[in-house]
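=== RUN LOG ===
request id: a7f3
mode: sequence -> structure
chains: 1
length: 216
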Amino acid sequence: MTLKVIGAGFGRTGTMSMKAALEQLGLGPCYHMVECLPRGPEHWQKWTDAAKGHPDWDSIFDGFASTVDFPASTSYKALADYYPDAKVVLTVRDPERWFESTQETIFAPHWIEYLRTVEMGEFIQATINDYLQDRMHDKEHLIRRFNEHIAEVRASIPASRLLVFEVKDGWGPLCEFLEMPVPDTDFPQVNDTEATKGIINKIIENGAEAVFGYSG
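=== RESULT ===
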């Protein structure tokens, strides 16, 4: 199995909805941070290695047909080069709402501080925080990086290979881009804010190994 779709959008741009949509279209399993964390330290180390310029993409994405969300989205260019036949989908949303969402969830201050003290934090630092210059609560800076990332993706991926997509646009643009029939069901709308908060708090309280039990 090789990647057929590469998601270049940051976390909190509808990536869980996008994961569900790609899997419904038969382009799954779809790799997402929720697939990454339970795999444990050996898997996380592969991301740290990739950030240092020593990726093993085939191992990281073994068994997956697509990927969205962090940590893969900050490596979109390397992945697009490595999987030249894959199409790239850049999920976007209103930058102000994106920032607000991150501060409640994946960039919440208590979570960022916790990650600085544990092994899990190393790959997150290397693949996400460093990409954002480690200014995880600086609104002006993060919104600027959000917009810069969108511009960089547009500049580096040929238009014929790229879809810039908001999940509220539904099946039409996505299916046209992927050359697939439109399902006769509604596009998935996964609002995972509360679930994300819950997982974060469980990890902080009990530790990642107790929460996930590590499958890898």
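=== NOTES ===
The mean pLDDT is 96.
The radius of gyration is 16 Å.
=== END ===
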